[in-house]
Structures are given as structure tokens and as C-alpha cells.
Amino acid sequence: MAYSQIRLKILPSVRCLFDKLVQVRVEGLTPHKQVQLRSRLVDDRGRVFKASALYKANETGQVDVCRAPSLGGSYTGVEPMGLFWAMAPEIPHSKLLKKNVLSPTLVEIEAMSAETGELLASETNERGYMTEGMKRIPVQEGRIRGVLFIPPGEGPFPGIVDLYTFGGRLTEPRASLLANKGFVVLALAYMGYVDLPKNPKKLDLEYFDEAVTYLRRHPEVKGPGIGIISISHSGGLALSMSSFLSGISATVCINGCNANTVIPLHYKDLIIPPLTPVLKNIKFTDSGLLNLRNGLPDPSLEKNRASQFPIERASCHFLFAVSEDDHNWNSVLFANQAAATLRSHGKESFQVVTYPKAGHFLEVPYMPHCPSGFHAAVGSEVVFGGEPKAHSEAQLDLWERVQQFFKSHLDNKSRPTC
């Protein structure tokens, strides 16, 4: 085999945005010979993520990952982006970390001889986060700490507050990629970032009110209302913001809870206490990880009512996205309870989308699945659940739904809360 004839191509270009599909193709192989394709990236923490798959060249000596089935490895069958979503960490329980969205995530793809293990060809896919002309502006206005993304082009644009997880501090990939779709997005930190306390004794809803006001008043943001996208712990914050604050038209809650958790939430004279975990319901897996799925009590019970968010007060549209295999907590129960509350008050402006076999962290498309990892609130490694392929399909579906949801409800006809 003349290795110099072999080419690995990433189409349409080696450079793309992180949420875009690419075509991986190998040409110049010996017809019908097997080749192993490998993918590898190093995240901002220095953790290595990788996948591999075995393919067989066709009669013209080509492997097109968009058409050819993987015969074995990290995934099987025809999976155009399998080399990306199937990547797993070398060090178990690692979640891919991307701090700096000004630089792309580099995914190295290699073609190896299945017989000898020799490197035949390689190429690097540069998966970026910001389209050309986008502005990334660190925000320290009053108490607010975060980063604002403004898309290129002529505004004003619909505005969105992006809240991430309890231990996430500030995470920019989703916010920047969403801004590429024509939104002004404020990635808002609420603990452990810059001068925000790492272990706050309470959270103040006034802080989030300040952020909403800041975004609504920004000259690049069109009104009348803004959107919120949230996940996990911040899902509760999004529900509380929607319940108490004005100017919110559309809220996405991904695997959140309909009651307060972990930290007391204060608003004016009101204190919303967190649910008290039921420790006997927290189990260990065979591999020694914590399974928190049933660790929280039922928010609808009378004794837990003080922790429930009064979302019947909200007049925005809601999109609840829930994973049936979420082991962080019972997201399906919480979303269904939230929906029942809204329905019982004559409100039908919500949708609940359920993903079987998906886990807790529904991220942007092609983000490697995180089945387990360190949980900041409990201080140990826990199961997050999900199967890689189903989880990846859920991320792809949800990403399209989120964009459509915000486009539908964040325009000049939308009605914010009064």
C-alpha cells in the first residue's frame, strides 16, 4: 500500500462551528481492506477524550463515514458523527471542559492500518464556537458577572440569559453557539466566578433580576421580553425567575427541579428553603458511584410546599426537556409536576419533551456524553446516566427545538410577564 496516496479529508472544511456536522472521508486505500479511524481531543483541563471505529474500504479504496458502517469499536453502524459524540475520557468520570471559546476545540482524526497499526493519514478538525464578527464581552456591571455574546450583523436581536450547572461557574460554549443563531446571549455566573462566593450561604433573586434588566436594556437587544436557558440546578433558578420577575417571555428548563435545591433562595422578604435530601434513598452503584436519582423528596407533598416554585404565577412560555435515564434526580417527575401545576391554573403555554435513554447533561450537539462525574453539591463522583448514542440523538434534537422555541416566542409579538 502506497501510504503517500492515502488522504484523510474533513469536509466541507477542517474548520467549522462545534455544533456542525462534518464528513470524514479516507481515500486511496487498498479496496476492501480494513482501516481503523481514531479521534482524539485534549480539553482545557488537559484531559484526553478519544474514540475509535473499524471500517472496511469499498471497491474504490474509499471510506466515507457518512455512508459506511462501523464494524466495531466505540460505536457500530452508520454514524456520520460517531467519532465525535462517542469520545470518552481516558480518566473516568471526566466531563469535557471548555473555558476559552476564543479558541477552537481541536479534534485529531487518524486513519490506522487495521493489520499493522501504522498511521496512514491524519487531519485535524478545528471546531470553533464564535462565528466571524461575533463580540465576546466580559460583563461586570453592578453585581452581575458573566460574558455577553453579540452576533454579527444588524441588530437588535432577541436576548437570552444562559444559566449553567451548580458547579459550572461560567460555561460559554452553549451561550456562544446559541448567539451564532442570531441571539444576544448573556452567560451568567451565579457562584464561584471572579468575586462571586464559591460556597454561598444563600442566593438572591435580585441578582438575577439585575441581569434580566441589564439584558433587556442593552441597545443590541430587542424586546419586549427575553428568554432563559437553564440546566440542572439552574433549572430551578430559571423557574423562580419566571415566577417572580418581569420581562421574561420564554424559558427552557433542561433536567431541572420544580422546587428549590441545595441553597436557600431569597427574594425581598421571601425565603424559599431547599428540599431536604432523603439520605436513605441515595444508593451506591456496584462501581462505588453515588446514584442520587431518588435522593430528593416529592416536592408536591404538603411538607415540601415551601420549597416549590410558584410557577403558576409565570406568564411566559416553557420548554421542559427531560431525560428518562437521568440519575442525578428524577427530572421526569419534576417536569410533569410543573406541567400539572400550570395546567391546573389554566395555563397551556408549555411543552414537555422526554428523551428515553438520555442522561443528565444534555449539552450542545456532538459534545461527548458524560455518564458520571464529580458532583459539586455532594462533593463526590455520581452517576449521571444515559447511553451514548441515545444521548447524542437527544442533544441534536433538543438543540433544534431550543432554537425554534426561542425564535417562536422572542419577537416583537411576544408578551413578557407584567
Automatic annotation (TrEMBL):
The record's Gene Ontology biological-process terms are: acyl-CoA metabolic process; fatty acid metabolic process
Give the matching Pfam families: BAAT_C, Bile_Hydr_Trans
Q: Where is the active site?
A: 232 (charge relay system), 326 (charge relay system), 360 (charge relay system)
Q: Which InterPro entries match?
A: AB_hydrolase_fold (IPR029058), Acyl-CoA_thioEstase_long-chain (IPR016662), BAAT_C (IPR014940), Thio_Ohase/aa_AcTrfase (IPR006862), Thio_Ohase/BAAT_N (IPR042490)
Q: Could you tell me the keywords of this UniProt record?
A: Fatty acid metabolism, Lipid metabolism
Domain BAAT/Acyl-CoA thioester hydrolase C-terminal as annotated: residue spans: 204-411
An example molecular function term from Gene Ontology annotations = fatty acyl-CoA hydrolase activity
Tell me the ranges covered by the Acyl-CoA thioester hydrolase/bile acid-CoA amino acid N-acetyltransferase domain, including all copies. Answer: 19-141
Q: Which family does it belong to?
A: Belongs to the C/M/P thioester hydrolase family.
Write down what this protein is called: Acyl-coenzyme A thioesterase 1-like
Report the source organism.
Pogonophryne albipinna
